[in-house]
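Title: Prediction job returns without error message
Component: structure pipeline
Severity: low
Priority: P3
Assignee: unassigned

Description:
Job completed but the reporter wants confirmation the result is attached to the right record. Sequence as submitted:
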Amino acid sequence: MILLGLPLKMDHDLHIAMAIFQPEKEIQYYCKRYLHEDEVPFFQPKKNASIIQFQQKTIKLAVCYEISVDEHLEDLNSEKPDLFIASVAKHKKGMKIAENRLQYISKNYKIPVLLVNNTGLADGMNCCGNSFAFNSSAKKIAQLNTEESLLIINLE
């Protein structure tokens, strides 16, 4: 499975989206449901499912600001995902806040989490990479550095 962040025009509205590529399936899209205030002038939220299935696993998706929105997490107890994946664009200070939040999510909902961060410039900000994963016990099991890298984790 490959997840790719992109702007997406649907029904005359522009959305912050994640394209979901899976073998032998049509491309799916998750559009951000909760926008940060600086995104509102340019994008529209879309109330679509934030859950996908991959190899008999249920995955909850979040894009950047959504990790801080309690409403986005409300369904975690009923959805019981096998994995929580968040895609973000964060600088060093923002990554520390995101790491604390994802560790909280992992610990309180007892699910593994994966956070993928951008490297290089995005919207005039230097994103610091440092993507990471926590297991379902909220223990960090992997972390990348600031360079472009590939993170492979085993959730079994």
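Comment from assignee: result matches the submitted record. The two ends are 17 Å apart (CA to CA).
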